[in-house]
From TrEMBL:
Homodimer. It is found in: Secreted. One of its GO terms (cellular component) is extracellular region. Belongs to the glycosyl hydrolase 2 family. Beta-mannosidase A subfamily. Residues 880-947 form the Beta-mannosidase Ig-fold domain. Its EC number is 3.2.1.25. It comes from Tricholomella constricta. One of its GO terms (biological process) is glycoprotein catabolic process. One of its GO terms (molecular function) is beta-mannosidase activity. This is Beta-mannosidase A. Keywords: Glycoprotein, Glycosidase, Hydrolase, Secreted, Signal. Residues 1-25 form the signal peptide. It catalyses: Hydrolysis of terminal, non-reducing beta-D-mannose residues in beta-D-mannosides.
Length: 1214
């Protein structure tokens, strides 16, 4: 009945829309249909959300799997990758609204299918597709009118992208490429047009998702020109529901390109800054009627500027293919205000109105009517040779330029690299992306690089099925976006069947992005030039692979890109040696002169002893990648770790999320993870005090923090070095740190964690990306200290500097002041000194002192400051003291930190779990955290909450945790507790408020330990007449309703249609006990529990195998899982056994009871075991066990700890 009611409602909605529009066209979001998902053999068939979605997400919503990002699900859910999945929707709610007498043109529009699929409508095959990055439009008019054999379905049958790529790579015409080992799924991602990192990378998982990951629509066009089109946003539009942006005419805009550039400008011809602007508008039209004569009019309302009508050639009926039309409009240079990145000017945007209409007077009919947001700017990539005058007069090292110019002026590019925001594109939101980009802006960045192994980022959610906003936010915030075609870290085939799908992919995305003034260039891919030149030098017949690279990146992709845009440059690769010639386009490769500088560079050096050795830093015109990895915060680990044992630096689950160096195979856990962990460990031990506390959680939290401190120290040092190169012979004008964001909760190079929490690095970048900075360059080899002031301003900057030596007790020892003037894009030397004895304050040892460096300057009419620190020896050797920090907390989320006992290096305050935001200096508003706190110089910070992303709207100031710098790690009164609701003395009050995302913590006196998994609040727990301890087990969060009856029966209320928990399906049947055993053994062997670098004994293997076998899957609601509704099950005390041997006779005995254990258990215990066994074999519903308090340890031992939601005891029971 519910299903019929829903269908009736959908039909009514469609009919209403159809009546409103009359015979005019309309656009319908197919997500409004009822969708199902099934696997190839039909053993799984579940309701699905409809586009946009992925199979993983729908399986999680149905309860088949848990949140993919939990625990080791990237390993345990690999079976999804090996299967084929089919999405099906009944079109009857749509087709019943159609007038059979009308012959409307009907189109099916997919903005993104991931990846390989057969599409059918009404039983008729429509298309086979194999490219995740393409938009597809199909004329389905005939299929809708005449369905086959009563089939009314829209069906999308998705093939495993992994197996498809395997098959393609074994074709007779598929050649083998040396070095294409891959990161996890080996050697196959170049053969399928899909996100490369979906197959695994050294910072992320390999879920290889499939699905209709972007919105899809049915578009009906009117059969006449009698109805004017309503005004829409930028085409192709992708409204979020059917009543928005309806099409009201006979023409549908399938693609649009808005390209604004200077007259005469091209890829090889730089713009004349005084020339007129050219507004180039290109539209791809699908038309249901022939329009013999029409005109196109453009206007910018804010400028009171309207073009003359452009006559358009006859528009034919175009349903199978698009009809293309282009107009160009010249605008004087002085009319519009130019768009600039936020740190160099104002990111000015304008609304461009486009109207295509039939000619006439006031009764004319508009066929197309839309408004788009764009801006005026020129962007160049200077790659030509420096002149002899530059070499002689400016001291430039001979070679080629490699930097960007905005509106004709060279500038310093400060920024980071962006990877995909989530393994599952369909669940990304604009709020999450906006926060990441705002974080970039708040830290002083003016450029982000969209990495070429990920996804083409969308314009906005309403354009071409974007799903979320990206380029539109960059336009608004004033941050440049370096864009790349999706090719990365491998040699790529040039077979015709590959090029045939790549060409429309590239054209569609370049056209779509053209209108965004934030786009700075198109690079052909990521790091491939270096791979192919190395292959050319090291492999026999390596020239063959170099020639193939030239064919694809120098010719094919170059020609496609420059034919679609005049406004932005093209480069063959992110990291490149540059060009020999722009016209014709000829790459340089290794054809250079010794001592000259070409192209750009990157640096990854994991030898921590070289972290601050400037002789190991590249001398480059531009650095587009450099980084070092670190742990995420303790709070972020809480989001995915489900057992207290996991909260350890070298625990199995933590190690499983260390993908550097990559496995290069499907081995699990990553056999190379110890090397990556060791790199972080050695770095901390070499440069910082080694974390060591009495509590394992605190030690783990401190290790996480310390890896972030080292990451910050080495990245800040590199940024300063590259920035100072603007005034050196290399004329370095770019530093892009790897990386900005995270794709999941794990070890990575990011500065912003998956949830949006800032790492220490993000605050460090705020300081080193400031417009004017001071930095001490220390060369330990010759004991030389050079202190510079560096500016990226277009004008000279004047200011003052102060250098003060302190001891670790916070006593000032020596102060020197300076006045300075820094020329444009240059630096000035404040201090040069050699010999540690002359540099240090008289009579002081290097371990006893440190130097505080401050500057103040006037920039753009405002006062800016910068603060940096110099320690003449490693902090691991410094004579640090207990700083005795105190915190005064204000109710307005302000915090005043004071040090009483000494200097606290890298003082840090952390916001609680469930909150997203940043700390800013109370006076300046500049982001601030991770600083040196000095006695007598208090710091007052305000926490700025991001309400859109925070689950906790009003955080308690007492939940904010401070760190005592690097001395004792965590302050005695600042113990990091898991973010569960505090346990009150009366468990009747505390237990109903159990919250998720935590680990075990010591309970107050006379209260038992609480173990909590990642679930949200469990409502309406009734502890009436409770005796002893109460343990709550929950497999389905947020739907548990328990009543404890007086007759000692247990009732668990749980959704009627809850899908049974799947015992791993094999060929359509439930797994037998033998298959269970096989799966358990496989897991047992695969998971080598690393304990302090060694493999765990067989007993631990067996315990983990059994745990896996009997796991009740718990959902992490914080990841957005929708919980199914409950059913009811009653369990009574039917078990009368009094010994374990009697219980062993039952086929349902729990795994923790093993032969040989002779201990007797009472009636309550056996009842609990029986209930657990029954539920594990049945539906894995919630259960509550009640027992005397003395049995607490027994329950904890025998029940999978990852399932325990709460355990509490009344005060009056021991």
């Amino acid at each position: 009945m519910q299903s019929e009611s829903k269908m009736h409602a959908i039909v009514t909605l469609f009919r209403l829309l159809w009546i409103i529009n009359g015979v005019a066209g309309a656009i319908f979001n197919v997500a409004q249909l009822q969708w199902t998902l099934k696997n190839q053999n039909g053993s799984i068939q579940i309701p699905a959300a409809g586009p946009p979605s992925h199979a993983h997400l729908d399986l999680a919503n149905a309860g088949i799997i848990t949140e993919p990002l939990l625990g080791i699900n990237d390993f345990t859910q690999r079976w999804i990758i090996d299967d084929n999945w089919t999405y099906t929707a009944d079109l009857l709610p749509f087709t019943r609204t159609l007038d059979p007498e009308e012959n409307q043109a009907t189109f099916l529009v997919f903005y993104g299918i991931d990846t390989v699929a057969n599409i059918s409508v009404g039983g008729h095959p429509v298309a086979w597709v194999n490219n995740q990055f393409r938009q597809y439009t199909f004329d389905i008019s005939a299929f809708i009118a005449a369905p086959s054999s009563g089939d009314s379905n829209l069906t999308v049958s998705l093939q495993s992208a992994y197996h498809y790529a395997l098959n393609v790579s074994t074709r007779p015409d598929a050649e083998h490429f040396p070095g294409n080992g891959g990161f996890e799924y080996p050697g196959i991602f170049p053969w399928v047009r899909k996100v490369a990192s979906d197959f695994g990378w050294d910072w992320g998982p390999a879920f290889v998702p499939v699905g209709i990951y972007k919105p899809a629509y049915i578009v009906i066009l009117a059969s006449s020109t009698n109805h004017s089109a309503v005004q829409t946003g930028t085409p192709p539009i992708s409204p979020s529901h059917p009543a928005m942006d309806d099409v009201s005419g006979p023409i549908w805009v399938d693609e649009s390109s808005i390209d604004i550039y200077k007259a005469g400008q091209s890829f090889s011809v730089p713009p004349d800054q005084k020339a007129d602007w050219v507004v180039n508008v290109t539209l791809a039209l699908r038309s249901a009627v022939s329009v013999p004569k029409s005109v196109l009019t453009l206007s910018f309302p804010e400028l009171n500027l309207t073009s003359e009508p452009f006559d358009i050639a006859d528009i034919p009926i175009a349903t199978n293919e698009s009809f293309w039309m282009t107009v160009t409009w010249s605008i004087p240079d002085s009319v519009p205000q130019r768009w600039y990145p936020h740190n160099l000017g104002t990111p000015k945007l304008y609304n461009l109105s486009v109207i295509l209409a039939t000619p006439g007077d006031s009764s004319s009919t508009s066929l197309v009517n839309f408004v788009t947001r764009t801006g005026f700017r020129t962007i160049e990539l200077a790659q030509t040779r420096y002149s002899q005058a530059d070499v002689e007069q400016r001291g430039i090292t001979p070679g080629d330029q490699w930097h960007f110019k905005i509106n004709g002026r060279a500038f310093y590019s400060l920024g980071t690299n962006i990877i995909p925001f989530d393994p599952f594109y369909a669940r990304m939101s604009t709020d999450r992306v906006r926060w990441v980009l705002q974080s970039a802006v708040k830290s002083g960045q003016n450029m982000v690089r969209v990495w070429g192994g990920g996804i083409y980022q969308p314009s906005s959610s309403s354009v071409a099925g974007g799903g979320y906003d990206f380029y539109s936010i960059c336009d608004e915030l004033g941050i440049l976006a370096w864009s790349e075609l999706i090719f990365s870290d491998a040699l790529y085939p040039i077979n015709d069947f590959m090029l045939e799908t790549i060409e429309p992919e590239v054209r569609q995305n370049v056209r779509r992005v053209n209108r965004h003034p934030s786009n700075v260039q198109w690079a052909g891919g990521n790091e491939i030039e270096g791979i192919v030149t190395s292959t050319n030098r090291s492999v026999e017949n390596g020239i063959h692979f170099l020639n193939e690279f030239v064919t694809l990146f120098e010719h094919f992709l170059h020609d496609v890109v420059v034919s679609e845009t005049h406004s932005v440059p093209y480069t063959d690769c992110s990291t490149t040696k540059g060009v020999l010639s722009l016209d014709p386009y000829v790459l340089r490769f290794d054809n250079g002169t010794q001592g000259e500088i070409y192209g750009n560079g990157e640096r990854y050096n994991y030898d921590a002893s070289k972290a601050f050795d400037y002789t190991t830093f590249p001398v480059s015109r531009f650095m587009n990648e450099f980084g070092f990895h670190s742990m995420p915060s303790f709070y972020t680990w809480e989001e995915v770790l489900t057992s207290p044992d996991d909260f350890s630096f070298n625990s199995t689950v933590v190690m499983s999320r260390e993908h550097h160096p990559p496995a290069g195979s499907l081995a699990f856990p990553n056999p190379n993870a110890p090397k990556g962990q060791r790199q972080m460990t050695v770095a901390v031990e070499l440069w910082l005090p080694t974390p060591d506390t009495a509590d394992t959680n605190q030690t783990f939290a401190q290790w996480c923090y310390s890896t972030q401190i080292f990451q910050t120290m080495t990245m800040v040092s590199q940024v300063a070095w590259y920035r100072h190169g603007a005034g050196k012979g290399e004329n370095n004008l770019g530093a892009l740190v790897w990386q900005l964001n995270d794709i999941w909760q794990g070890v990575s190079w990011s500065s912003v964690e998956y949830s949006g929490r800032w790492k220490v690095l993000q605050y460090g970048l705020t300081g080193i990306f400031a417009p004017v900075i001071i930095y001490p360059f220390w060369t330990a080899a010759n004991e030389t200290l050079q202190t510079l002031v560096i500016s990226d301003r277009w004008e000279d900057v004047e200011g003052s500097a102060q250098l003060t030596w302190y001891d670790w007790l916070g006593r000032p020892l020596d102060t020197t002041s300076y006045n300075f003037t820094v020329p444009t894009l240059n630096n000035s030397v404040l201090l040069e000194a050699s010999g540690l004895n002359t540099i240090l304050p008289i009579g002081k040892d290097a371990a006893d002192v440190w130097l505080l460096l401050n500057i103040t300057a006037e920039v753009d009419g405002r006062t800016v400051t910068n603060e940096q620190y110099f320690t003449p020896t490693s902090l691991a050797n410094a004579h640090l003291v207990d700083p005795e920090i105190s915190v005064a907390r204000g109710q307005d989320l302000t915090f005043t930190l004071s040090a009483k006992g000494g200097v606290a290096a890298w003082t840090w305050i952390d916001h609680p779990s469930g909150t997203v935001g940043i700390f800013v200096d109370k006076d300046t508003g500049v982001p601030s955290n991770g600083f040196y706190l000095i006695p007598g110089i208090d710091r007052t910070l305000s926490f700025v909450l991001n309400a859109a992303l925070s689950r906790v709207a009003e955080p308690d100031v007492s939940d904010f945790v401070r760190r005592e710098g690097l001395t004792t790690g965590i302050a005695a009164d600042e113990v990091i507790e898991p973010q569960t609701q505090r346990i009150a003395e009366n468990c009747d009050e505390s237990a109903p408020g159990v919250r998720g995302g935590t680990v075990g913590l010591p309970a107050p006196r006379r209260l038992y330990r609480v173990l909590v998994v990642n679930t949200h609040r469990i409502p309406e727990l009734d502890f009436t007449n409770m005796r002893g301890g109460t343990m709550v087990l929950c497999a389905v969060p947020r739907c548990l309703l328990v009543k404890m009856a007086h007759n000692n029966t247990w009732r668990a209320s749980h959704h009627e249609n809850n899908i049974r928990a799947r015992a791993h399906y094999r060929e359509g049947a439930n797994a037998s006990s033998r298959q269970f055993k096989a799966r358990a053994n496989t897991t047992r062997r695969a998971r080598a529990h690393y304990r302090e670098g060694t493999i765990a004994p067989s007993r631990q293997f067996k315990a983990r195998a059994n745990t896996t076998r009997w796991t009740m899957h718990v959902t992490n609601n914080e990841m957005g899982r929708r919980v199914p509704p409950p059913t009811t099950i009653c369990l009574d005390h039917a078990v009368e056994a009094t010994t374990t041997r009697e219980l062993e006779k039952s086929s349902s005995r729990p795994p923790a009871i093993r032969k040989g254990r002779r201990r007797h258990y009472n009636f309550w215990t056996l009842s609990a075991f029986a209930a657990l066994a029954v539920r594990a074999r049945a539906r894995m519903a919630p259960i509550i066990f009640r027992s005397p308090p003395g049995l607490r340890d027994l329950f904890i031992d025998f029940v999978d700890r990852r399932m325990v939601v709460g355990f509490a005891c009344r005060r009056d029971h021991q």
